[in-house]
Amino acid sequence: MATKHLSACTTILVGKKASIDGSTMVARNDDTFLPLTPQRFYVEPAVSNRDEVWVSNQNGFKAPLPKNGYRYSLTPNADVAKEGVYAESGFNEKNVAMSATESVYGNERALAYDPLVKNGLAEDSLQSMVLPYIDSARDGVKYLGNLIKKYGSPEGNGVIFSDHNEVWYMEIVTGHHWVAQRIPDDAYAVAANQVAIQQVDFNDSDNFMSSDGIQEFVEKYHLNNHKTGFDFRRIFGTDNEKDRHYNTPRVWYGQHYFNPEIEQDPTSSDLPFICHTDKKITVEDIEFVLGSHFNETKYDPLAPGNEDTKTLFRPIAMNRTQNSHVLQIRNDVTGGCSAIMWLCFGVPAFSPYVPFFANANDTDESYANTPLHCDDESAYWMYRKLSMLVETHYSEFAQDDVDFLTDSKEKLRRHVQDTIDEAKGLKGSELTNYLTEQNHQVVKMMRIATEHFNHQLIEKGLNLSKLTFEYDKNL
Predict the structure, then answer these.
(1) Which helix (H) or strand (E) element contains residue 191?
(2) Of all helices (H) and strands (E), which one includes residue 327?
(3) Of 27, 151, 161, 452, whose Cβ has the fewest other Cβ atoms within 10 Å?
(4) pLDDT score of 5 more than 80
(5) How far is CA 12 from the centre of its chain?
(6) What is the set of active-site residues?
């Protein structure tokens, strides 16, 4: 079994009528087992008439790749030889978004009768095996479902797909069984390492898909512990003490942010999956939740006081978050400019989300090439430095960082709008080349701003040294 993501992730899904501008949005923190697992961000070109077999260096999974594949972006490990690929997140050239995976865990009752497949399709291979070959979010679920049927799964995975119209969340819970649910257009959902999907309507193929024979499997082995309905979470998921300290509080905080008027227990096993709010959800809302650490609650590990509660729950943003991303597909602009990846390298509590238009041929070298050890050139290490600096003197630097992030959000949102305005009338390769250049320009802008801010923090930190002495000149 691949081991990179044992420390787990947090996911947010938003339907197009629940967002402020009609966008579909899917987002996730990519959390790894260790604090430092350097990642890259680059673009794989389209391929045709290829004859290649995919082989995982993590669990030995092997499968032939289709001869033709779309261009797609990805955020894989820098050290593929040791850590595996883990392409994780991106768009293909059809404006289909995919993020994989949200680690989930089946219970021992279900796994006893459909155990995990040791050399099946795992997270390290999953994104690369699917994203270049799908034309829609719904197509992604079907395509992956067929792969799981053929090869099996060695782990539990929650997989996210979206396009202009639909957002789907797919949970693979045993060696071969899974369910996927379409997020209603007017709804949002938060998931955090626990099986999330609840009641399944097998007669509603517009909003649910599932593995072949899952109903018969559950009936044969007496897995449904409810008298009515098919509660996927109860039948296949876990509900234990670890969930109530590691998983459910993150879902609670996300729902609390979007629906502060609703009273819920952060350790509840009954937090809903599909949620509605009167608030129109923005990119910035999602960034805040994914960058949060139970802010303004007694569970915040960075806040003063509350020593008996501040470490009860695992925060959403962590030092093990290697990247955080919001995959936005807008419906208020032309298709060539509509897909935007807001990418945060570093701890999202402290680092900005930089927007990249998906319709691009490449990425800046500072993103495409990440060394395994700290340097002064790569984006990954620049933002990791920023995160370390802010957290080291959090009480002194927190407000400076808030001001920096607020200013960055204003500039970055303006950059996106200016780019879209200037792109009007451009089509085909001319548009792709223009957006590619704008992606390079935003990297340059943020490098200047971030390095300047890092230097400010270093100077301020030098004045906070405890190795000091006030000399009385009258002595």
Answers:
(1) strand 188-191
(2) strand 321-329
(3) 452
(4) no
(5) 8
(6) 9
* Mean pLDDT within 113-128: 98
Residues 6+ apart with CB under 8 A from 103: 5, 6, 8, 9, 123, 155, 156, 157, 158, 193
Backbone Cα Rg of the chain: 22
H or E stretch at 253: helix 248-258
Main-chain phi, psi angles of 252, to 5 degrees: -55, -45
Give the pLDDT confidence score for residue 141 in this predicted structure. Answer: 98
Residue 284's region, left for phi above 0, alpha for psi from -120 to 50, else beta, is alpha
373's CB contacts (< 8 A; 6+ apart) are none
- Bridge partners of residue 25, in order along the sequence: 14, 328
The total number of residues written for the chain in this structure: 475
Is the bond preceding residue 363 a cis peptide, omega within 30 degrees? no
* Spatial distance between the Cα atoms of 61 and 86, rounded to a whole number of angstroms: 13
Structure tokens at 137: 């979010």
CB 408 within 8 A of CB 352: yes
Task: Report whether pLDDT(466) > 60.
Answer: yes
Token pair for 265 = 């227990």
**pLDDT higher at 306 or 470:** 306
Whole-number average pLDDT of the chain: 96
